[in-house]
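Here is one chain, start to finish.
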Amino acid sequence: MENSITKLFNIQYPIIQAGMVWNSGWRLASAVSNAGGLGLIGAGSMYPDVLREHIQKCKRATQKPFGVNVPMLYPNIEEIMQIIVDEGVKIVFTSAGNPKTWTSFLKEKGIVVVHVVSSVAFALKSELAGVDAVVAEGFEAGGHNGREETTTFTLIPMVKEKLKIPLIAAGGIATGRGMLAAMVLGADGVQIGSRFVASLESSAHLNFKEKVVNTQDGDTVLTLKELAPVRLIKNKFFNELQDLYKQCPTAEQLKEKLGRARAKKGMFEGDMEDGELEIGQIAGLIHEIKPAAEIVKEIVEEFNIAKKSFC
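Its structure:
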């Protein structure tokens, strides 16, 4: 399955495990990398010293390439980037910010840089900034999302039409058939988040994993667009948000309702009522918690079967 993405990252399969907050620690990243994909540590939910610990443990757990996802809207960004350099991380995915800010710094250190975007305009801006590849993430994705609400299968061919560097599709992909569909539309690889949340190695609380496998079509909604759009499973917190929206709240009132560590409370600590539960629409196709290696194997096998059936 060699192509521009497998060559760029020196991996077996063009499958990237998304660096999700509160889900993507060293256990998940190393398991996906050992299975032939590219595992990512999610720095967004980690203090700098915690990130350093996860990088060091990941290096001991795998001899394969792995990377770190860095949402640039979080504090301590300078310290985080220096830790990445000091620890010899070779691949960085940046998101939630201007790719120009850190791309040159990282590439000067010999690091492969990928930026996550939600539109053609930002994909082109990332290419001009010098990134090595782009992740184009559609409206279906979990977690923080683009304001444009462009679906993955609309976004991918539009980005492919303009982009010269490798393209990774994200949002609404959890199966081999979904991977094949994304690649037919022009993607060189896929980034998968939600499916790996429901893995044994995910650092998410078991309550959240079980909630994901029981999520059905229509159970997630994109909300909090006035702050940073995020796709959430409907629960008590979500319903309270909807009640607040009926009062035409200001951004400050929404921030007050969100409070601090709401995502940690839900996904990491297991509070299914008052926590923020971030997951993609594809959760309706996730029915079982499995080891990450088994998930990678199933995706690859299904991809190959589907490809043969259509060729």
